[in-house]
Amino acid sequence: MIYLDNCATTKPREEVVEVMVRALTQDYANPSSLHSFGLKMEKEVNVARKKVADAFGADESEIYFTSGGTESSNIAIQGFIKKNIKRHKKVITTKLEHSSVLFQFRKMKELGIEVVEVGVDTNGVVDEKELLAAIDEDTFLVSLFHVNNEIGSINPVKDLISKIKKINREIMVHVDGVQAVGKLEVNLHDIGCDSYSISAHKIYGPKGIGALYLKNGVKIDPLVIGGGQENGMRSGTENVPGILGFGVAAEMVVKNFKSEQESIKACRDRLLERLQEIDDVKINSTDKGVNNILSISVLNTRGEVLLHSLERDNIYISVASACTSNGTGKSHVLDAIKLEQKYVEGTVRICFSKDNTVEEIDEFFDKFKEYVEELREIMVR
C-alpha cells in the first residue's frame, strides 16, 4: 500500500498505539474519580497536557483537550461570539478557510452579524491590505488559517496578528492550526493569537482528540455545560487513551521534526521532478508552502477517476473537490486562487508523511502517468 492522503489522517506512531492500549486495558480509571486510581490518571492527563503545551510553545493552563480541530474552532469562535455579540456585530475571516470555520461564519449572518470574507492572492495567502482595511470599531473577531488544507499555503499569522492588534488590541484572533502543527515549527506565545486549533490525528496521533489553545486571560463562554472537566471549558469525561496518545504524538513530532521534514521534502522534490514527464500539469502549491501538501491539476483528466484508478493498486490520494463550499461542485479554495476552469476537474492532492519513501513516489508516479495517458485518450476523442 502507498498512502498519500496524509492531510486527511496519518498513521499513528507505534509509541502512540502502545500508550493507548495500556490506557484502554490497564489504566482505565476516570480521572475525575477521587480514589487513588482516578488521581493517578488525572496526573497522567496533566503530563500529556504539558507535553502538548511544551511542543507548541504554550503554558499547561492554556491547553484544553477537545474531540479535534473542528470542535476546537467551534468552541473558540462560538465562545467569542456569545461573549461579545451584545457589544459588537462584525467578524472577519478569509475565503480559504476550512469548512469548520467558514460555515460557522456564514451561519453568523442569521444572527445579524456582519461577516467579511477576505480574498487571497494566487498563492493562497491572505490579502493583507484587504484584511486590515476591513477592520473597524465594530469588529470583535478575526479568524485565520495557518496552513491551507488543500494547497498548503502559509499565512504569515504572527505578522498579521501584530498588525491587527495595533489597530485594536481588543479584537480576538483565532487561528486554525490543524494543518500547521507537525508541518511547521509552531510557538503559540510567539504567534500571539488568542486561540488556536490543533488535531492529533494530523501528527501521527489518534483520531477523536485535539486541543484548543486559549491564551491566559482570554475569556469565552463554553459550549458544553456539565461536570466542569477541562476547567469548565469542555465538560464531559476525558478521552484518556486519546489524550495520552496525543501527548506522545506531540512530543515526538517536535523531537523528530527536522529529520522527518527532510524525508518529506525529498519525496516532494522527487514528485515535482517526475511530474515534468507529463504535459499540461499545473502545480497549485508553491515552494513557499509546507512540504507535506502538493496540489496538482492535470489538463484533460478527472481527479476522481484518477483517484479510483489508483486505489485498485492500493495507492491512495485525494481530490481537491472533497470539501466544496460554494454549491457549484468546485473547490472554494481553487475558486479563491482563480484556477482556470479547464484545470479544476483534473485536480488531485498529494499529502506526504514521514512514512513515505522516494521509491514509493516513483511507484506511485509510474501508475499515475499510466492512468493520465489512458484517461486522456478517452476524454479527447
UniProtKB/TrEMBL annotation:
<comment type="similarity">
    <text>Belongs to the class-V pyridoxal-phosphate-dependent aminotransferase family. NifS/IscS subfamily.</text>
</comment>
<keyword id="KW-0411">Iron-sulfur</keyword>
<feature type="domain" description="Aminotransferase class V">
    <location>
        <begin position="2"/>
        <end position="364"/>
    </location>
</feature>
<keyword id="KW-0808">Transferase</keyword>
<dbReference type="GO" id="GO:0046872">
    <property type="term" value="F:metal ion binding"/>
</dbReference>
<dbReference type="InterPro" id="IPR016454">
    <property type="entry name" value="Cysteine_dSase"/>
</dbReference>
<dbReference type="InterPro" id="IPR015422">
    <property type="entry name" value="PyrdxlP-dep_Trfase_small"/>
</dbReference>
<dbReference type="Pfam" id="PF00266">
    <property type="entry name" value="Aminotran_5"/>
</dbReference>
<keyword id="KW-0408">Iron</keyword>
<dbReference type="InterPro" id="IPR000192">
    <property type="entry name" value="Aminotrans_V_dom"/>
</dbReference>
<dbReference type="GO" id="GO:0051536">
    <property type="term" value="F:iron-sulfur cluster binding"/>
</dbReference>
<keyword id="KW-0663">Pyridoxal phosphate</keyword>
<dbReference type="GO" id="GO:0031071">
    <property type="term" value="F:cysteine desulfurase activity"/>
</dbReference>
<protein>
    <submittedName>
        <fullName>Cysteine desulfurase</fullName>
    </submittedName>
</protein>
<keyword id="KW-0479">Metal-binding</keyword>
<dbReference type="InterPro" id="IPR015424">
    <property type="entry name" value="PyrdxlP-dep_Trfase"/>
</dbReference>
<dbReference type="InterPro" id="IPR015421">
    <property type="entry name" value="PyrdxlP-dep_Trfase_major"/>
</dbReference>
